[in-house]
Write a structure and sequence with these properties.
single chain, 475 residues, alpha/beta, Cobalt-precorrin-4 Transmethylase, domain 1, 18 strands, 34% helix, porphyrin biosynthesis, multifunctional enzyme, CobA/CysG_C, methyltransferase
Length: 475
Amino acid sequence: MDYLPMFAKLEGRPVLLVGGGEVALRKARLLLAAGARLTLVSPTIDGAFNEFHGRFTHLAERFTPDHLAGHILVVAATDDLEVNALVYQSANQRGLFVNVVDDPVRSSFIFPSIIDRSPVVVAVSSGGKAPVLVRLLRERLESLLPRHLGGLAELSGRVRGKAKQVLVSLSDRRRFWERAFASNTLGSLVEKQDWQGAENWLNEGLDKAQTEVGEVVLVGAGPGDPGLLTLKALQQIQQAEVVLYDQLVSPEILDLVRRDATLVSVGKKAGAHSVPQEETNRLLVEYARAGNRVVRLKGGDPFMFGRGGEELEVLAAEGIPFSVVPGITAAAGATAYAGIPLTHRDYAQSAVFITGHCQSDGKEPDWQQLAATNQTLVIYMGLMRSEHIQQQLVSHGRRGSTPLAIIERGTQASQRVLTGTLNELATLATQAQSPSLIVIGEVVALREQLAWFGEQGSALSDEFGSTDLKLVSLA
């Protein structure tokens, strides 16, 4: 470790800044934001320093070693190499910490890249070796850290004393705070900046900390590619204590779940419901009643043929708190990766999503409406009834020559796309494996121009190696 990270309290303490240009201005902003009693030495200064009028002392003269007297820290930010060298040498002789901007060799301390969510402050540094890399890391962290993180820290500070009194055990306090910070209820109050409501919620949580009920978060995992997870979905699965997941959730996404979480497969897959829905409902209630933070992880979007609404009805009846994180549904994700737009001005003005499963009462969908032209028909879980679907659509007026695609394991590295016509649906379906999505409509023909994921000649083909099969017309 080349540098020891430290956070220095500069409030009211004397700091010397040598230089009066744009670089010095940036350092002045940082030092004044930290409350430093700043003295600036430079024959002239940039007019932009007027924004700090009255907040620093300006000595309109060239730097001499005598200027260091009484200061605890010094920064050299001039474009004069001789002046910078003199500042460094003089500060070193007096045992002062010194920073020469953009010159790590002549610096006993450096300014890190800062993410400010005061009182939470995150600092990142490469010791001056890779500033662009540090900037990229800072941008990533900025996007990950909530905007109101500082206010949340201030809030927890006000409640911390009561938490120590109510929860004597350190482990109990840690568990309380982990759950509180991960709670969607608290997050919602903080997002609305309802600080009083958030404080009341924390205090109420302490009053019933020993008998608290957990909560369930219904999370959409998307169609398979972990890069398509929403930021909020990633946060939820990394905070969960228990995760109940379907077979449609890809292994790459399950790898992102926190390591100490309990993983429970409730393996739903077309034609193979290894765990009845009633048992899944019972497990959700049981784990939440035990005080756990539970994530119900579903492939795609939980409200798109995922029975998410049914599970939430059970939780509502049991009085268990819940929330929902939407996901990218397979119809949107898989078609995009296959180069098939769902709508197109010249071919399809609407898109219809249906499930290939029969309704419990055996009632058929409105095939006349589904067979309409100028629309894209997307069928989930339709492989097992492909022959019936083909017959109904053709008999109700959809042309047998209508382009068709079956997208297998859409968006994943092993994605495979079979293309043909509606007349060939039943034959194509015998070559596909679940999970697959059936797409019917003239927009499928655009795949020849728009396919990009894993195609020959694509920069992604070697890495992902997905395949594309086309069934030659049987006519």
